[in-house]
C-alpha cells in the first residue's frame, strides 16, 4: 500500500471516530506567541513538550534551520500575519544543535538536484535570472549565527512594532534543554 493510501485510510478512521475533538481550538494562539523553528523531525513533538505548548497555544512556523533569509519573504509575512491578524505578542526563534543547515554546502545540494533530473540549463537559467543558488542554498557555520541573524531581521523589520519581544533560543534535539541566546525583553529596554 502506498504512503498516501495509508494516510487516507488512517484519516478516514480518525474523522469517523472523532479523534479530532481533543484538538479543537481557535485560530488565535492561546499563549499569544509565534515560534519560528527548524523543520527537523526530532523537534516535531519534543519542542512543544519542552516549552509546555499544547494544541492552540502558539503559531509555529517551520523551515530549514529556522532561518529568516529575506525580510520580505513568506516566513516574515507569516510572522506579520501572526502578530497583526492573529494576536501574537511575542516571537521565539528557536534553532537546534546538530542542525543540517550547519555547514550546508550548496555545491553538494546542487549535485543532488542534478542527479534527480534537473538539467544544467535550468540551473544556468536561474543564474541568468539573478538567483544566486550558492547563497540561497547555504546554511550557517554555527546555529547561533543563524538564530542571531534571524532575530535581527525580525526585530528590525519596518512593519513590526519596536516593543515586540523577539527571543532567540537553541534547543538540544536529544534532551529538549533550551539555551537562551537573546532575550527579547532586554532588547526592548535597551532601545
From TrEMBL:
<dbReference type="InterPro" id="IPR036874">
    <property type="entry name" value="Carbonic_anhydrase_sf"/>
</dbReference>
<dbReference type="GO" id="GO:0004089">
    <property type="term" value="F:carbonate dehydratase activity"/>
</dbReference>
<keyword id="KW-0479">Metal-binding</keyword>
<keyword id="KW-0862">Zinc</keyword>
<feature type="binding site">
    <location>
        <position position="99"/>
    </location>
    <ligand>
        <name>Zn(2+)</name>
    </ligand>
</feature>
<dbReference type="Pfam" id="PF00484">
    <property type="entry name" value="Pro_CA"/>
</dbReference>
<comment type="similarity">
    <text>Belongs to the beta-class carbonic anhydrase family.</text>
</comment>
<dbReference type="InterPro" id="IPR001765">
    <property type="entry name" value="Carbonic_anhydrase"/>
</dbReference>
<feature type="binding site">
    <location>
        <position position="38"/>
    </location>
    <ligand>
        <name>Zn(2+)</name>
    </ligand>
</feature>
<feature type="binding site">
    <location>
        <position position="40"/>
    </location>
    <ligand>
        <name>Zn(2+)</name>
    </ligand>
</feature>
<feature type="binding site">
    <location>
        <position position="96"/>
    </location>
    <ligand>
        <name>Zn(2+)</name>
    </ligand>
</feature>
<dbReference type="GO" id="GO:0008270">
    <property type="term" value="F:zinc ion binding"/>
</dbReference>
<protein>
    <recommendedName>
        <fullName>carbonic anhydrase</fullName>
        <ecNumber>4.2.1.1</ecNumber>
    </recommendedName>
</protein>
Amino acid at each position: 500500500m502506498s504512503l498516501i493510501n495509508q494516510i487516507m485510510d488512517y484519516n478516514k478512521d480518525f474523522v469517523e471516530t472523532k479523534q479530532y475533538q481533543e484538538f479543537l481550538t481557535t485560530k488565535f494562539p492561546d499563549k499569544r506567541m509565534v515560534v519560528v523553528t527548524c523543520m527537523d523531525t526530532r523537534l516535531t513533538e519534543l519542542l512543544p513538550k519542552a516549552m509546555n505548548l499544547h494544541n492552540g497555544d502558539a503559531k509555529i512556523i517551520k523551515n530549514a534551520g529556522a532561518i529568516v533569509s529575506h525580510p520580505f519573504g513568506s516566513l516574515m509575512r507569516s510572522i506579520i500575519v501572526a502578530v497583526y491578524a492573529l494576536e501574537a505578542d511575542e516571537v521565539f526563534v528557536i534553532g537546534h544543535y546538530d542542525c543540517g543547515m550547519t555547514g550546508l554546502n550548496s555545491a553538494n545540494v546542487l549535485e543532488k538536484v542534478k542527479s534527480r533530473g534537473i538539467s544544467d540549463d535550468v540551473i544556468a537559467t536561474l543564474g541568468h535570472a539573478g538567483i544566486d543558488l550558492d547563497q540561497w542554498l547555504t546554511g550557517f557555520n554555527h546555529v547561533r549565527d543563524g538564530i542571531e541573524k534571524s532575530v535581527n531581521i525580525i526585530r528590525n523589520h519596518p512593519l513590526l512594532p519596536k516593543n515586540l519581544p523577539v527571543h532567540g533560543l537553541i534547543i538540544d534535539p536529544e534532551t529538549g534543554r533550551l539555551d537562551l541566546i537573546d532575550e527579547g525583553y532586554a532588547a526592548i529596554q535597551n532601545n
